[in-house]
Amino acid sequence: MTATATGRPRRILVTGVGAAPGLDVARRLMALGCEVIAADCDPNAIGLRLPDVTARVTVPVREPGYAAGMLRLCAELRPDAVVSTVEQELPGLSALERDLAVLGTGMWLPPLPAIEACTDKARFAEVLTAHGIPAPRTVLPDQLGRAPDGPLVVKPRRGQGAKDVIYCATRVQAAVLCELVHDPIVQERVSGREFTADCLVDRDGRASVILRLRLVVKGGLAMVSSTVCDAEVERQVKAVLTATGLVGACCVQGFLREGSPHRIVITEANARFAGGFPAAEAAGADLVGQYLSGLTGHSVDHDRLRYKPDVRLTKSYETLAVTEGITP
User: Fold this and answer.
1) What would the pLDDT profile of 102-138 be if each residue is shown by its tens digit?
2) For the domain 11-107, what is the CATH code?
3) Which of 176, 262, 295, 323 has a CA between 20 and 30 Å from the CA of residue 235?
4) ∠ CA(18), CA(20), CA(23), 5° rounding?
């Protein structure tokens, strides 16, 4: 599925190449034989320096020119599809779906309610609670009196990548932190063994789930992951996918708490590839390849999403490019 009907390589626009999901998706698509347009709103994004990509700096999603800029980019380079790894831009891309289709550019996006459930952490907690899925108790700043006693987390309601996530011990501390974090929520702090489920949900609603433990986490990114099989966790993850309505590539995170009333607590879901998804591929799951198949209107082969447990992957930082004579 890496070539068009005319035989030329598929041209895929990948957004958010300054962070791990976009960088690794771009690399994997190139390894599969695709031409990649690497895009990010930060001119210093590392993925713009990948060899053999067509690099473009885009308009930030929260600026008024985002939609027009995206249409110009696609009209110029005519990608066959867009793969977004920036959840904040999904509502804007959804609004552009018809216009991009006219340009021959396809997308595989969840419905808007699913996007809202994943980009709004308060809404996500409401959805899980309504479906009886254990989640951290979550309140808004004006509901602090209802916050649980004990360790708490203050985080942006619509954040990504563990940015501005702050831990504290009391409601008084949480109240102060709510003045520092933009549009915050306050959650019960959950501990245990942290896991991520890398998921692919086809257009008929069938889901494949690849589970891995997050053994070393830095800045919200799993630097060391180990795949694991756990039927109970898989069932709970699939319940989350059904409750939110997610389709395509997505991920679900949570904690395993042995000996607690709820062994599995779900903390978030993302309508994008996870930063540590290469662990799923290292364990044998053709995650990006089968996503590309579904993205281009073909069927997803779930047999190719089977994986081996106990495969450990370690990510590292690297020097990708050294340049001279460039003004910051």
Assistant:
1) 999 999 999 999 999 999 999 999 999 999 999 999 9
2) 3.40.50.20
3) 295
4) 65
Q: Tell me: the pLDDT tens digits for 31-73?
A: 999 999 999 999 999 999 999 999 999 999 999 999 999 999 9
Q: Which residues contact 239 (CB under 8 A, 6 or more apart)?
A: 131, 133
Question: Which residues in the chain land under pLDDT 70?
Answer: 1-3, 5, 161, 325-328
* Cα(215)–Cα(224) distance, integer angstroms: 5
Strand duo 166-168 + 152-156: pairing: antiparallel
DSSP 213-271: EEEEEETTEEEEEEE---HHHHHHHHHHHHHHT--EEEEEEEEE-TTSSSSEEEEEEES
CATH entry, 193-314, from 2.60.40.1220, 3.30.470.20, 3.40.640.10, 1.10.540.10: 3.30.470.20
